[in-house]
Structure formats: C-alpha cells, structure tokens
Design brief:
This protein has about 170 residues and is α/β, with parallel strands linked by helices. The chain contains five helices and eight strands; from the N terminus they run βββββαβαβααβα. Helix 3 packs across helix 4. The longest helix has 14 residues.
Amino acid sequence: MAKATPVDDLREPLSLVSLETPVGVLRVVGSDRGLRAVLWPDDKPGRVALGAVVHRPHVVLESAVTQLDDYFAGERRSFELPLDLVGTEFQVAVWRSLLEIPYGQTHSYAEQARLIGRPTATRAVGAAIGRNPVSILLPCHRVLGSGGSLTGFAGGVEAKRWLLDHERIGGGYR
C-alpha cells in the first residue's frame, strides 16, 4: 500500500485540493504515485516533506476527497488509496503500523513501539507519529499517551478528540 519516496524525489510538482470537514478545512496533497499529505488548518510548516504544490485537480485527490467525505459521513472505516510517503525507513514503518489499530480503538505509543519490534523506542515512535503526513488515513489520532491521555496531534487536541468520538459513536457527520 505505502512505498517510501526518496527525499531527493521532491522536485515533482504536487497537486493540492481543499476539503471542508467537521474538523476544519483540510488540504489534500498528492502526486502521480499517490497521496502525499493531509494538512491541517494550523499545520506547522515543514512538518511534512513537500516540494512545489499547485492547486489543481488530480485523480488521486478526487478519490481521497470522496473517501474522506465517506469517512466523515460514517460510511467508511478504512481507506483504499495509493500513498506516496516521504520519510526514513523507520518513519514509514511507524506510519504503516498505524493501520494495525482498529477503527474505534486506541493504542499507546509504547504499544506502537512494541508493534514494530522496537519496544524501547517509544519516544522515537512518538516523534515519527508526529510527522505522519497522512493523518486520518494512517490513523495517528488513535494513539494516546500513557494512561489514555490525549497528547499532541498535528490537527490539535480538539480535532483528535472529535475524530476519536466520531469513530466511537459510528460517525455520520456531514
């Protein structure tokens, strides 16, 4: 599903569309290889590796928007999109591990570290999760701090809470 793109391959122009959602306007970015990023309204610059971005339609983005709309309507629990992940091997392994967290459930950062076979790398796993370029699709919102605390999230803690509540009650917001 997700292949890593070499960082030196960031010269390709990317397509971008915006999507109005219950958690704010998301900017969805993609390449001919797949979805590169889902950016939040207050996303920190540089959190996601991007090259040149142009506002224009793209078949990958059209599919991403449809699937995200379905997710927010409570009609989708997983996504079927090619991903164009840019990161280190470790980061990509951490991001892929997020797919192991079932819809409506949560894991801790320590559980994610164990899941990738690196039980002592909790902090490194947390740092990688913080740079997850395709939030929601690779569900980093399902990862909680020790004791179930809502920790940092690129979209903000309130967006994280909304996504978790949405999944627990079955969704259906439009």
